[in-house]
Design a protein that fits this description.
Oligomer: single chain
Number of strands: 4
Largest sheet: 2 strands, antiparallel
Organism: Plutella xylostella
Structural class: mainly alpha
Protein name: Gustatory receptor
Order of helices and strands: EEHHEEHHHHHHHHHHH
Family: Belongs to the insect chemoreceptor superfamily. Gustatory receptor (GR) family.
Number of helices: 13
Membrane topology: Multi-pass membrane protein
Function: Gustatory receptor which mediates acceptance or avoidance behavior, depending on its substrates.
Number of domains: 1
Strand content: under 5%
Length: 407
């Protein structure tokens, strides 16, 4: 273990010494440890952690994941009647069939196909943290871990509250309890994606603070920003992270962003597909039952489906918001670099490095796409709402045409 001892600044302020740890993978994994644990319960094994050293999962562990899926499917179709024919039952269980397909494909992709990508992501985070000198800041990782528990607790609270609705309307059954895990798994994977994007955004935000601090110190301004919970007031620390080195860190962040995109491509795509089916089926079932006499039980059943559809739409909105936050932070990076470039009071070397950094930022937009078909941003949500609205209008017009033709 090495130590970077900082010298005393001209104004007599002595900065705190920073421990540069040889390996901080364990600290990074602790930020997502509860998510990895829950994934293991579902048979999803991303890698094998041996005292901070990441290795490929063994064949036995991969087979165990397949066995867990088979056992769950056997229990599911044994104790439920999802295969029973009927318009209401068939439409009600289409999303469940989609989630079962997503479940097994997620196991195959995560545990068999993209294992090296998983390992590369966390090793990349380790290199970034070392470059930004935050690998020794235990408070930084504790805050990230608390954030994970907060998000996970929120999802569990939402699921618990939703599962109370069948009790309230006397609609609870063993089928409801058995179906719940596949819905929770999808939300768990969405949470995992959002957490990784937030981790990237946080490190990009630190780059922005270094850019701001470098410009402020060179201008003689001591009102600098806090970077990792404590103000870095020693110029020697900031000098070690030159703009060219910050550009290198940004390139690593952009590379990790592309890896996360590759890893969760299928998840985002299937989440959009499943939510789209939720919406269409909810519209179809609502239009069907409003034409007949509704009893209390049917009304309660429709209300529960509408509530669940709203919750799932909220998860899609969460994905879009997180991706937009990353893009917004990148825009802030671009603005700070531009301010350095146009500041002719700074050294020419710094301005030239900033120009190169700006070209790098423009080359990596940090946008999440779905198999390069479309970007996950605000426009995607508007298009989704537009398609659902068109479908609603279409479904409303069908009965009118049928009634008109029968007259």
């Amino acid at each position: 273990m090495t130590r970077v001892d900082t010298a005393q600044h001209n104004n007599g302020v002595k900065a705190k010494s920073i421990e540069v740890l040889p390996d901080n993978v364990t600290s990074i994994l602790s930020c997502v440890k509860p998510l990895l644990f829950l994934e293991n319960l579902f048979g999803i094994f991303r890698f094998r952690n041996n005292s901070g050293k990441l290795h490929l999962s063994g064949v036995n562990v991969k087979i165990l994941g397949i066995v867990i899926f088979i056992v769950y499917i056997a229990i599911f179709y044994t104790f439920t009647d999802v295969l029973r024919f009927g318009r209401k039952k068939l439409l009600d269980n289409v999303p469940t069939f989609i989630l079962h397909v997503e479940y097994i494909v997620t196991i195959v992709l995560t545990s068999f196909v993209l294992v090296k990508t998983n390992i590369e992501i966390y090793l990349g985070f380790s290199e970034i943290d070392k470059s930004l000198y935050i690998n020794a800041d235990t408070t930084f990782y504790k805050r990230s871990r608390r954030h994970t528990y907060l998000l996970l607790g929120s999802i569990l609270l939402v699921h618990f509250s939703y599962n109370l609705l069948p009790y309230m309307f006397n609609l609870f059954s063993i089928e409801t309890l058995i179906i719940w895990p596949v819905y929770f798994l999808q939300d768990l994977e969405i949470l995992f994606f959002c957490k990784l994007i937030c981790m990237l955004k946080t490190r990009l935000h630190i780059i922005n603070k270094h850019l701001n601090n470098a410009a402020c110190i060179c201008n003689g301004n001591r009102n600098i920003y806090t970077i990792t919970g404590e103000a870095l007031t020693d110029f020697l620390i900031l000098k070690k992270i030159r703009i060219v080195n910050l550009a290198s860190v940004y390139h690593k962040i952009a590379h990790l962003c592309s890896l996360v995109n590759e890893l969760f491509n299928f998840l985002i795509f299937m989440s959009l597909i499943s939510v789209f089916f939720y919406t269409l089926i909810t519209i179809c079932m609502t239009l069907y039952y409003v034409q007949i006499e509704l009893d209390v039980k049917t009304t309660a059943w429709l209300s529960i489906k509408i509530v669940w559809n709203i919750i799932e739409m909220g998860h899609i909105v969460s994905i879009i918001v997180v991706c937009e936050m990353l893009v917004t932070t990148r825009k802030k990076t671009k603005v700070l670099i531009t301010e350095i470039i146009i500041n002719y009071n700074l050294q020419e070397t710094m301005r030239m490095e900033a120009k190169s950094f700006l070209k790098l930022v423009e080359a990596w937009p940090l946008k999440i796409s779905v198999y390069d078909m479309f970007y996950v941003d605000t426009s995607l949500l508007l298009k989704f709402i537009n398609v659902c609205t068109v479908y609603l209008i279409f479904m409303l017009q069908i009965p009118m045409f049928i009634n008109f033709s029968m007259q």
